[in-house]
Structures are given as structure tokens and as C-alpha cells.
Amino acid sequence: MHKTPSPYLNILHECNINWAPYSEQSLKEASMQKRMIFIHIGSINNIDEREKVLKLFSNKGVSALLNRYFVPIAIDIEDFPEIGQIGFDLLSITEHFITLPVNIFMLPDTVPVACFPNTTAKNFIELAHNAVKAYIKKKNTLERAGAHLKRLLEKTGRIPEKMPPFKIRDKLLHAYVRNWIKRAEEIEKGIGEAVRSIHPRYYIFLLKYAYTYDKTDILEQIRERLDRLYYSAMFDTVEGGFFTQYSENDYNKPLFEKQFSENIQAAILYSMAYKCYGNKHYKEAADRTIEHIENRYASAGGGYQASVSLNVSPEKSTYYKVSVADLKKKFAKGYCKVAGILGLDTAVPEECPQIVKNSAAAAGMTPRTREKLLEIRKEREAELLVDERVMVVGNALYACILPIFAKSCGHKMAGYVKKAEDIVEYITTQLIDKDLKMHRYLYSSYGYGDSTLLDYALILTASILLYTVTGKEKYNTLATGYTSYILQNYLCHENGMFLKHNKNEKQLIPCSREPIIDYIKYSANSIMAGNLLLLYKINGNEYYLKLFMQQIYNVSPQLTGAGPYLAGWALQILNYLVYENGKQKS
């Protein structure tokens, strides 16, 4: 297998499959050899899914099929997010739940014919056999089916044309939120046993909406959800920070993965909650999450690393767990009090490790108690798997939220603004060349991958916000440069949206995408809409407002029934309405 900084792909290397890189050469070989293509798209974060993937690809029948009949390609979604988006769109088209990993069978010319999430070896072999059989014996039928699927894919990935203008009113958001809440219970039931995520970005919009329009019932629902999340096993009371995913509705079964970007959003969510409700434990949650980010993700060479997960199953791992016997060794007579703070059941056998739960009592935990608990964990660090890549997306997002976090929590701004400036300086010196082109991430002092619209949109946001906070001309210059770069290389004049890839460079993707849907992050187009509105507020350039409004016109017809998948757009519409209402009042 090809050399890669991706920890996920390095794990897949353990399987007896002749994985090829996603490259022009690999696709050319598939076409020349007239072999079907199998693409697997995954992520390092979820240990449960990772183990299922390893079990699948370690199966001799699966590996034999893939090696004989396919050009098998494994992709880390962080390396090629646009392929990941195609995978999510295909899952949606084929009526599967949106999740990682994604598996795609393609014809040699990269036309997709089937897409499905993780599955058993038995099902995979059956699907692969059927695909190969159809390719050999019913090629024309398979090609027609693939062409139909590709047409559907092209329709989902692009806004077909500019939509006509209309008056943007509050009632659009009211209808959107009503529909979202109405469907929420159905969505939960539909998930079944699927992995759930905390999705702080959804609640950021809902909280701002409810606070803006004084929706007391929604404010109460959000307050209850935030309390349940914080006072549960999902918040790590020892190290701080939130786990990203869980497998039970009551938050008592975390999958013990922490993502830098999700914790950034959790910190800003709880800082907003503190500003809205005034509850001190929300400030505590935000502060401890930022503390966790600084302690766990900060890279020695600069910037912040991507994630921390486990390399053994949650059932076998003891890193995030503690037993009564552990506490007896560390705390002697005081172990009962510590056990109570950690939510341990003293009726459970002493040697049995238990999941630690956060509680109101944990606020009184002394620094020395926490140090001793960290000493226990230190002995078990071999169980951790750290993704050491320094991603532009997460780092730029962190630079964006630091000044906002400081203001919401009542901290002195200077230190947080300086930290944000350091991050932007790091990105601009380490990951950007003289032509403003960026790598997606840094690993061992080397840049990897070509950045997509999301990377550029977020570094633009950080530049704009730092200019408004500091007034330093260098950030205005950076913002001006990246605005021009994005408009030149990503704007699609036919419909007013932005492409995910650089339109002036050759692409390896089967279909162009305009990132609109919030699958696992805010969509890049919604972030660009926010940038355009910010730029208009700063310099009054009507061109930016015109572009912003066209994007809103294009997306609004899809908004009402979209639920959380268009939360980023709803947030930008809310920002616009707040701005317009403020102008009218003044």
C-alpha cells in the first residue's frame, strides 16, 4: 500500500488487500484493464466502526474478490472530502442512513453503480458477486443503471440555476424550526441502533434562534439537552472535553473519541448558553473544553492535532474508565468520596473498571484529585490513537471562535485574540504558498493534500474576524486576497454558488459538487455566505450582498423540510435578519 500520513489508511494496510491510492494513475489503470473500481471512504475516529471495517476486509473471501475483480481504493475522508460528499449523496439517493464508512462500486470509467454503508462479509461478498456478474453478463444494463445513478448524483450536487428573488422574512425560519422539531422524534426512531453524534453546530443555530425570538419552549428544551449532555459520561470530567459519538440515547455509552473540531463547537455552544441562561456550569463546561483543547491537541511544532480515539474496543479499554480498586490505591481512605464524584457504583466488584460520569459534584474536585486521576490514565496511554495531522479546517475554526468564546464567557480578550493570531500566522507560514494555494494539513513538517473550498472559506472567516477585532491591516490584506482567490477559482457564475473544487484545475472526481448540505460539518457554501455578509457589513460593497442574497434565494426552497442538514444556512439567514432588523430599528 502507498505511504500515507493517514492513521486510518495505515490501519487498513493490515488487511490483505492490494489497496491503490486515489490518483489519476489508479483510475487510468482501472480503465485500461477494464476492471471495476471499489472505493472505501472512512475515518479514524469511531473505534467501533473501525473494528467492523477491519473484520470485513480481513475476511479472505472479501479480499480475494477485491484483489481479483476490482481496483480497490481506500480513502480517508480528510484527504478527499469531495469524494466523501459524493459518498454521502449516494447514500442519500439509495435511501441509506448518512454515515461513515461508505462503500462504492464503480465502472472502470468511474460511473457509480452501487453504494452502501458498512456491512457484514456475507452481504459484501453477495453485493460484489452481483456487481461483477452484472458487469460480465449484463454490461449494457449495468451501464444504464450507472448512468441513471450518475444523473441523480449530478442533480443532488448542484443548484441547477439562479432562483428568483423574494423577500426574506422571519416566517421562513419559524417554518423551518417548526418542521425540524416536528420531525426530530421520527428521526430519532429511524436511527435505531445507529451511532449518534452530539452535533453542537445544530444547537448553536437553535439556541441563537430561540434566544433571538424569545422562544421559551425551545430554550427550555435546549437547556435540558445541554444539562443532560454535560452531566453524563459524554463529558470527560477528568481531562475535560466532550466525546463526539455515543450509542445510547441517555449518553451513558460514549465511543471514547474526541475530535478537535467538535470540541471547538461544543466550547462555543456552551459559552453561548452561559450568555443566554447565565448558568455557571455552562461557563465551566466551555472553559474546561478549551482547557482540554490546549492540553490534548496542541502540537509541539505549532497548530492543533485532529483527534484522539482508542486503538482497542471500548469494552476492553480502561483508559477512560476507573475501578474502585484503582481509587483505593491512589486515595486510600478518601476513595469513597472520589468514587461518588465520578459516579461509580460501589456495589460493582472493586476490580471492575467503570465508565466515569460527570456530575455537579465534580465542580468541587480539587486539582490534586484530578492530578492523581490523570496519573492512573498516564499508565494506560498506549490505548490511545492520536491523529497528529494539523488540519486547516479545525485550526482556522479555532481561530474564529476564540475571540467570541472570550467575549461570551467574560474573559479578557487579549490572550485569546493573540492565540487566534498565532494560529492564522502558523497556517499562513506553514501551509500556504506565495500564490495563496493551501495544503489541507501538515504532518511531520510536510504539507499534504489540496485544500477545498471549506479550507479557504474558514481561513477567510478567521481573517475577517481578526480584522474586525484587532483593526490590523494585515488581516484586511489577507481577507482581500482570499476573497479574490475564492471568487476567481470557486464561484460558479451560472447559479451564484461556489464549487467545492478549484474550477481552474484538473479534478479526479466523477461529478462536480457545490457543498450545500451540512453532513458532518457546516457546508462550505453556507460559510461563504456568512463571509459575504461579513464583508458587506465591513465595507458596504453591494456586490457581496448581491452574491449572499442569491445564495439564500437558491437554498431557501429546500430549507423548510431539510431539518438539521441545512442548519448552517438557517444560521446565515438568521444573521441576515438580525442585521436587517437592527438597521430598521436604528
From TrEMBL:
GO terms in the biological process aspect are: carbohydrate metabolic process
Sequence ranges assigned to domain Spermatogenesis-associated protein 20-like TRX in this UniProt record = 3-151
> Pfam families of this UniProt entry?
Thioredox_DsbH (PF03190)
For this protein, the record's PANTHER family field holds: SPERMATOGENESIS-ASSOCIATED PROTEIN 20
Q: Can you say what this protein is called? A: Thioredoxin domain-containing protein
